[in-house]
Structures are given as C-alpha cells and as structure tokens.
Design brief:
Layout lengths: L3 H11 L6 E5 H6 L3 H7 L5 E6 L4 H10 L15 H7 L4 E4 L5 H10 L4 E6 L30
Parallel strand pairs: 1-2, 2-4, 3-4
The structure holds thiamine diphosphate.
The site of thiamine diphosphate has 13 residues, from helix 2 and helix 4.
Amino acid sequence: MGFGLPAAVGAQIGNPDKLVIALVGDGGFQMSIPELATVAANRLPIKIVVMNNGYLGMVRQWQELFYNNRLSAVTLQGFPDAAMLAGAYGFPGRTVEDPKEVGQAMDDAVRHPGPYLLNVKVSPLECVYPIVPAGAAIHEMVLGPPKAATV
Ligand SMILES: Cc1ncc(C[n+]2csc(CCOP(=O)(O)OP(=O)(O)O)c2C)c(N)n1
C-alpha cells in the first residue's frame, strides 16, 4: 500500500519509452501524494488511475465479512479532489463516474504526452474475492459473497 505510485516512478525512469500506468487505491494514493511532485518535476508521462471507492476497501471488507460489519476507521474522510490535485501539480486530471466513460478517458490519458491522472469513482461497497480470513489456511479462502440462507 502506497507503493504503486513510487514504483511507477521507478518503472518510468528505467523505461522512458514505455507506457507506465499506476493503478492505485484512494488510500494507497493518499500515502504517496508527495510523489506527484516527482512526477511533475520530471514530467514523467505516467498515467495514474485512482480507484476511488471512498474507503480503505480491503479493511472495510474484512470488517464486513469477519467482524459483523462493525466498521471502524475505514472511511477516507478528507480525501482531496484527486483531479484538482493533479491540476495543482500542473498536469491534467479528470474524474470519471460513469463506467461507459472509462474507455474514452483511458484513451485520452494514454494519448496525452505527459502525466495524467484519472480519478475513477467505483462502487463503495464492492467486495473483492477471493479473500483469506486472518489466521485461516489458504484452502479456507472465501471465494465469493456468503449465499443467502435457503429454507
Ligand atoms: C503501508 C501499509 N499500511 C497498511 C496496510 C494495511 N492495508 C491493506 S489494504 C488497506 C486498505 C487499502 O485501501 P485502498 O488503497 O483505498 O484500496 P482498496 O482496498 O479500497 O482497493 C490497508 C490499510 C498496508 N497493506 N500497507
């Protein structure tokens, strides 16, 4: 967590002619916001895609599934407008809310010669599977949402 953007910086510096896309959660992005200065100062043409669900999603999912949905300290209150943040660092940013717009937005980002940030709003309560509960063995992984009880 927080590694995606700095790793992309290294990948782009090491491979100046390759397309580098950093796919980051909003929580992980929050941890590495200062690296936007590195991106801007070096005009690194990285495409940053923030998967913005408004939560520390993996932890929220953990609390939902294994702690009876008792949520604590998982909302990303105070998270900035990521597209405006890119603008503040001097490169374009855009927020996408409609899934139908994502393809065109990615095309635009990739065609743009410099850095570009896409702030993609995704479903706040979507869970990611499979997940291995804490302390469980790998064969005990949960493959999908609990099925509704049938009578
Ligand atoms: C440095 C660090 N701190 C804490 C964690 C524990 N952790 C794992 S996932 C996660 C939440 C990630 O949230 P986000 O980046 O928004 O991604 P999402 O799970 O919502 O896709 C946390 C706090 C971690 N992996 N690394």
